[in-house]
Write a structure and sequence with these properties.
single chain, Rossmann fold, 12 helices, alpha/beta, two-stranded antiparallel ribbon
C-alpha cells in the first residue's frame, strides 16, 4: 500500500477539522479563551425561547458584550458569569421534535443539514412512537437512544449544555435562569425591557399526543435534565411557581 505523503495528510487533516464538528469545536474553544475577564455568557438551549431573547437584546442593545453559546457545550472559566435559557424537559423535547420535523420533513428546507436526521424523523413519524420505543420491558432500547442523537436540538438538550458546567461552577456564577414558561416576566426581571418578540415559533405545529407509556419513558429518558433543573432551583435560580409547572 502506498503511503500518504506528509503534505497530503496534513491537508486532509486540515480539511477534516475545518468541515467537521471537531473543527468547529476547536475554533470555538479558541475564541472562547479570548473572552474578556468577567464577561457574561448566555447559554441558549434550543427551543427554550433563546432566539426571542436574543432578538430583544439586539433590538434594545442590552448586554452588547455578552457571549452567546448555542448548540455547543459551554466551557467553564472561574471569572465568567452565565445566564441560562431553559425550559421544562418534556415540553422542550416535544417542541424540538416538532420544529425539526417541520424544517426537515414537512418543509424540506433542512433535509440534508444533518446526516441521518431525515431518515430518523420519517422512521418514527410521530414523537409518541419514538417515546414508546425508548424502553422495552423496562430496558433501554439502544437503537432508539442512538436515533435521538441524530436529531438536532434533541441531541443538544439541557444536560448536553449544563452537565459539565454545573459540575464546575459556583452558584454565584449563574447570574440568572430564564425559563420559557415564564419568559416575558423573566426578560423584564433580568434585562429590564418588555418583550415584544416571538422568534422561531411553529404556527403549523400539531399538538403531540403522548400515551402514558410514552410520557413515562420521556420522563425517564430526561432524568438528568430534571436533575440539573432541580440543582438550579436549589440554588434559587428558578422561581418555585415555575419549577412546580415544569415537574408536574
Amino acid at each position: 500500500m502506498q503511503k500518504t505523503s506528509e503534505p497530503t495528510l496534513i491537508n486532509f487533516l486540515r480539511q477534516l477539522l475545518s468541515s467537521s464538528r471537531i473543527g468547529n469545536r476547536i475554533k470555538w474553544i479558541q475564541s472562547y479563551r479570548q473572552i474578556p475577564l468577567g464577561s457574561t455568557v448566555l447559554i441558549h438551549i434550543g427551543k427554550c425561547g433563546g432566539s426571542t431573547l436574543r432578538a430583544g437584546i439586539t433590538h434594545t442593545q442590552r448586554y452588547t458584550n455578552m457571549y452567546i453559546v448555542h448548540a455547543q457545550k459551554p466551557v467553564y472559566r472561574k471569572d465568567l458569569n452565565y445566564i441560562i435559557v431553559a425550559r421544562g424537559p418534556i415540553s422542550r423535547f416535544i417542541s424540538a421534535w416538532s420544529w425539526r420535523y417541520k424544517l426537515v420533513v414537512s418543509d424540506g428546507s433542512q433535509r440534508d443539514r444533518f446526516a441521518g436526521e431525515y431518515e430518523t424523523l420519517i422512521k418514527y413519524r410521530n414523537l409518541n412512537q419514538l417515546a414508546e420505543s425508548l424502553y422495552e420491558d423496562n430496558v433501554p432500547n439502544k437503537t432508539s437512544h442512538k436515533d435521538v442523537q441524530n436529531i438536532h436540538h434533541l441531541r443538544e438538550g439541557i444536560s448536553y449544555h449544563l452537565r459539565d458546567l454545573l459540575d464546575s461552577c459556583q452558584p454565584q456564577q449563574i447570574t440568572a435562569v430564564l425559563m420559557q414558561e415564564n419568559l416575558d416576566a423573566d426578560i423584564l426581571r433580568v434585562f429590564g425591557y418588555k418583550n415584544s418578540f416571538r422568534i422561531n415559533q411553529n404556527p403549523s405545529r400539531k399538538k403531540e399526543q403522548l400515551s402514558e407509556t410514552g410520557l413515562a419513558n420521556l420522563r425517564r429518558f430526561l432524568e438528568e435534565d430534571y436533575r440539573l433543573l432541580i440543582k438550579l432551583y436549589c440554588w434559587n435560580k428558578i422561581a418555585r411557581e415555575v419549577f412546580v409547572k415544569i415537574i408536574a
